[in-house]
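Model it.
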Amino acid sequence: MGRDIGQAPLEPGLYVVATPIGNLGDITARALDTLRRADVIAAEDTRHTRALLNHFGISAKLVAVHEHNERRAGEQVAEWIRAGQSVALVSDAGTPAVSDPGAAVVAAVRASGAAVVPVPGASALTAALSASGLGYDGVVFAGFLPAKGAARKARLAALAAGPWAIALFEAPHRVKATLADLHLALGERDVVIAREVTKRFETFARMPLAQAVAWIEADADRARGEFVLLVEGRDPQPQGAGADPRAVLAALLSELPVKQAAALAAKITGARKNELYAMALEMKDL
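Modeled.
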């Protein structure tokens, strides 16, 4: 079960298989061959993957690997591979373990000494970057930001301190809040809003961050679908200059105690922790 008649089995190991993020034509010949020949397919959602397999006429043994059972599933997958089986790992869309379940499975298999083989293909991140038109020397991929609170502010402060372009994923119900927070943390940079990449209503729009929330609000359809947000890098600082320690502290002190804020600001800016601690105390007294 799990492979078509006449197909040789794969070598034992974990095959990390990218699947389409929207357009089914984006699946690769190698991905289809791997899915046909694998003994087991470990899927984020077996119902979703079954529909994909049915479309391509593939029958397979499916097991669920999602965020709630990932560690236990990783151990089971490693056992199957030790027993001589091949396992294909897929997420609901795109490349597994990139802000999707799968990393713990890959880690478990690697720790067991078994082979892990990437089968590359569709990725919302690289697709959005390739069509964004942004120029950049480097890109920081931030995945999904923390939903709220101190962790969110700390992540934004760290991103603001770096010179690189920023790429992140966002869900429709949080996209307006995230664009507003990005503007507050990053200032006057351009953002490319990539929505529903490779799907029917694919949209790319570039604008200053200050205009992004209004652009979303101007049409209810613009808040629907899956988003990749790409923010241009900040202008290079003069030689020897880094992130403004006072600005970083101001962002952190609204959510963190003075000692923690100073320690994190030191990591972000490279400034001395004792100097930042004194500055933070002074700011708290204002």
